[in-house]
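pasting for the record
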Amino acid sequence: MTTEPASATGYWEPLWAQGRRYRKVDPAESRLLENHLGAGRDRPALDLGCGDGSLTRGLTQLGYSSTGIDCSPSAMALATDHGDAAGRPVWVCMDITTDDLNILPDPAYAVITCRLVYRWISDKAAFLDRVRHLLAPGGTFWVVTEIAGRRSPTDPLQHLGITPAQAEILTAGWSTVRTADLDVLRCYALRP
């Protein structure tokens, strides 16, 4: 019998520590991100579940004052090990679902990204409330997630997609919902 870890850190830390790596941001996804978010103009951006920090660094390259957070100390070590130049991102090891949001460097963010993380959040409604609390007026919540049914039934990863009900929870209550598809992924640009 397998038991679930008591926390997100208990689940993710062993995976990162053992060398597990996840889908890289490709040029098509980078273009979509840039098209939907535009130039940063030094506005604050927050990358939730930043992993090795590649998307956080991409936000910095777009001109955002970026903060990457992850609950895994091993992921944070990878993110900080890139020798970023001036204007580098800020890295914070925390669990976005449970930790005090006041430890973040900014009270509100023009952009909040959530790449390949939403599917793993247990209490999606509470998570979205926390995101809305952190999102600046007129800001964008950028979510990249896999959609159920896009992989073949024999693919061992076919269970990774979110269901239509989970997508409905994600998109409910936003004044603007824009989507773009990339193979098995869907990108959401959500605005209050």
